[in-house]
Amino acid sequence: MEQRGSFPRLGLLVSALVFVLVGATGRASAHVKYVAPGSEPREVVEFLVTTLSDPFTLAVLGVGGASVVAAGAVYLRVRPARRDVAVFRTTMNGYRDLLPWLLRLSVGLPLVGAGFSGYFFSPVVELSVPTVTRLFGIGVGFLLLFGFGTRIVATFGLVAYLVGLAFEPALFLAVEYVPGFLAIALLGGGRPSADHVVARLAAEDTVYSRIDPFYRAVALPFVRRVQPYTSVVPVVLRVGLGVSFVYLGVAQKLMNPGEALAVVAKYDLTSVVSVAPELWVVGAGLTEVLVGVALLAGAFTRGAAAVSFLLFTTTLFGLPDDPVLAHISLFGLVSALLITGAGPFSVDAWLHDADERTRDVSAPTAD
Fold first, then answer.
1. SS3 content of the chain, % helix, strand, coil (to 5)
2. Are residues 251 and 291 in contact, defined by beta-carbon separation less than 8 angstroms?
3. Which residues cross the membrane (predicted)?
4. Distance, CA of 92 to CA of 77 (rounded, Å)
5. Neighbours of 128 (CB within 10 A)
6. What is the distance between the alpha carbons of residues 84 and 86, in angstroms, rounded to a whole number?
7. Where are the alpha helices (DSSP H) in 192-327?
């Protein structure tokens, strides 16, 4: 009963967080500023009307959308390679004990890089106090990598990010840190970590256990308090990443066509796929929105995560002057979703329950 009572409070927290994050999208800077700063602005409505008035563009987008819907319907109907999918899910579930370590690496590494580079979470945000910025990034990053005081450090990092966001909307560019910090605060350091070593020493009959003032008095009660929430870590991750993807598609491409077109022109992307630059921008924006909506709904979550990983690989590593270090958090959190799947409150969970009910009904009964 205690666990059920905790879900509404967590749901309210997640809903409020999503509202705050979505509300900031209209003011934040774009990822394309990393590689195409100072481009000429384009009027959004005029751009969209002109682009979507082209019959070829409409045909390409229509065929693409219909193909996605058809592929999803066919998969649900036929369920090809069931054994392969089952083995993949089982394998991914076997990595759950390493999830805290993966999350710490995903957040700690880019923070250390931010500290040494002198920016605050995002390369487009540099504070007027460079020494503090460097100490924050390096200190919080190394503590997360080392896994020492993990939950406290993650909470401190989350508060620092949200305070910074209130004064510098461009920090929304690094919104993936929010689900990363939240997930780490819920799961703790895991293993391997300094916290795990200290906990083992404090739990056994050792000299250290007789002098440790923190483990039994603070750490254990806190772990018991947050334990009911750990099952919604997949929800935190996919909602945070889903918001990030919708933001990338809408605010950075569809609502910011001037800079997006500048990226297409700078890297001559039309020579890769010979379509109009406008179709490149609209197609990329809608693809990111689709992935984001799938993650928010928890539909085909591992598949959406795999597509996300492919998008990051082809777009980020394909741009020679893009600061890839700043995107390690995205790669890591998407990889974490491959392990966790959608979790509760998702279309995937509903489909799984429906399959179980179908099997129970169709199972033969003894006379």
1. 75, 0, 25
2. no
3. 56-78, 98-121, 229-248, 289-312, 324-347
4. 24
5. 6
6. 5
7. 194-203, 207-211, 220-226, 233-249, 257-266, 277-297, 301-316
Q: Which structure tokens are listed for 227?
A: 């334990």
Answer yes or no: are the C-beta atoms of 338 and 93 closer than 8 Å: no
Segments making up each domain of the chain, as ranges: 2-63+90-345
Residues in the chain: 367
Amino acid (1-letter code) at residue 345? F
- Residues 22 and 296: their CA atoms lie apart, in Å, by 13
Residue 216 in tokens: 């039994």
Of 194, 118, 119, residue with least CA distance to 152: 194
Structure tokens at 231: 């099952």
The amino acid at residue 293 is V
Q: Which residue has the tokens 């008035």?
A: 53
Determine the Cα–Cα distance for residues 59 and 332; give it in Å rounded to an integer.
Answer: 35
Asked if 206 and 141 count as a contact pair (C-beta separation under 8 A), the reply is no
CB 150 within 8 A of CB 195: yes
d(CA 257, CA 278): 8
pLDDT 10s digit of each residue in the chain, 367 long? 334 444 344 444 334 333 333 333 333 333 555 555 555 667 888 888 888 888 888 898 899 889 988 988 888 888 888 888 889 999 999 999 999 999 999 999 999 999 999 999 988 888 889 999 999 999 999 999 999 999 999 999 999 999 999 999 888 888 999 999 999 999 999 989 999 999 999 888 899 888 888 888 888 888 888 888 899 999 999 999 999 999 888 888 888 888 888 888 877 777 777 788 888 888 888 988 999 999 999 999 999 998 888 877 776 666 666 666 777 898 899 999 999 999 999 999 998 887 777 765 655 555 4
Q: What angle do CA 98, 100, 103 make, to 5 degrees?
A: 110
Provide the sign of the torsion angle of the four alpha carbons 190, 308, 255, 298, taken in this order.
negative
Name the residue among 100, 108, 166, 101 with its Cα closest to residue 137.
108
Tokens of 48: 């969209």
Whether omega for the bond prior to residue 344 falls within 30 degrees of 0, making it cis, is no
Dist. CA 239–CA 266, nearest whole Å: 32
